[in-house]
Amino acid sequence: MKGTAGKAFVVVAAVLSLVMAASAGFAETIKVGVLLPLTGSLAKFGEIEKRSYDMAVGEINAKGGVNGKKIELLFEDDTGKPDVGRSAMEKLISRDKVPVITGGYASSVVAATAPVAQQFKVPFVICTGSSDDVTEKGYDYVFRVNPPASEYPNAVKSFLQGVARDVKTVALLYENTAFGQSSSKSFEKDAKDLGLKIVVKEGYQAGAIDFTPILTKVKAANPDMIYMVSYVMDASLLMRQSKELHINPRMFVGGGAGFTLPEFAKSAGDASDYVYSATLWVDTLPFPGARKYSADFRKKYGAETEYHGAEAYATMYVVADALKRAKSLTPKDVRGALAATDMKTAFGPVKFVSYGKKTQQNKLDTYMVQWQKGELEAVWPKNVATKKYIYPTPHWDRRR
């Protein structure tokens, strides 16, 4: 009996030792919550951002992590739906006890989750959700790395003033989401300031299967420019059907979002040629690590990245930098470190400032790209251009 009891004691001690060792090892990681649409209609964006977060955290951990501790990412799939996102945010805060949360793609999801982060006083570092009012509510636990939707068209505006001065009329098409509505309102104001007349203004349900009725109105109005705020599948269908209906404005312009993804060119085919888009980043910008990030992403995943991925990649570095500087890993101290952020990233400089109605908002320049022969080229401003812009857009029947 004594021998059996002794053996049992040894086994129990060994098990306890393993458990304690595992716990000690787990304590050496810092959990960071990441909220992204990994399934559903926005999954392509979620995928490129998840890959970029993974790349960044791999690099950070390989260089010693955060003061010797590795970062452990806890991804939650918000499916692009506000109620799902809210539940995921609550789980990360209440069950997983993370000191900071990042991600946030769809503006509608961000609008639903930012108040939760504020309520529980856990910092939320947004990488993409761009509806203007997110940083206009006075939240002190909500930070945004990317520019707000109203600033996306800034480069488009300067192009219209400097090059496309013969554009006088515009058709404005946008999806009825928080991002689409915020972007369309700001562009409508920009158009007024530029003296442009909006001859068609049409919102639509995201995921539409036929834009012919809307595009027929556009063709009848014969605008000089068509400005579209759409995610990737809608963007592709809009261009394919514009080709079918032989609509020939002087410019097709996307308001970012789906128009910069590689999937846009694949899905729209040659209808994507000459389409312009507002964008927040290209890898030829003189930011530290921009080209390397793009090349490493291509090598690792066998695919191209673009501004959404760069936002996520840079945001992970912003979070890691704050964790390193925080007095402790409590949400309050991490929030204090984030507020003092002033750093250079592959996406551009990051410093959270207040201006206008906005608080804890990063302020950046924007750019304009154009699809040329299946490649997305930076065309404006001139100092960042990789190719000269092609303007006006050639008529469909004059293309080779």
Element order, helices and strands?
HEHEHEHEEHEHEHEHEHEHHHEEEEE
Based on Cα principal axes, name the global outline.
globular
Task: Outline the low-pLDDT stretches.
Answer: 4-26
Main β-sheet, in a few words? 7 strands, mixed
What Rg is obtained from the alpha carbons, in whole angstroms? 24 Å
Strand order of the largest sheet: 7-6-8-9-10-14-15
Mean pLDDT: 92
Q: Quote the CATH topology of the largest domain.
A: Rossmann fold
What is the CA–CA distance across the termini? 91 Å
CATH first level of the largest domain: which class? Alpha Beta
By DSSP, the count of extended strands is 15
Overall SS class: alpha/beta
Tally of separate domains: 2
Strand-residue proportion: 15-25%
For the record, the CATH architecture of the largest domain stands as 3-Layer(aba) Sandwich
Helix content: 40-55%
According to CATH, the homologous superfamily of the largest domain is Response regulator
Number of helical stretches of at least 4 residues: 12
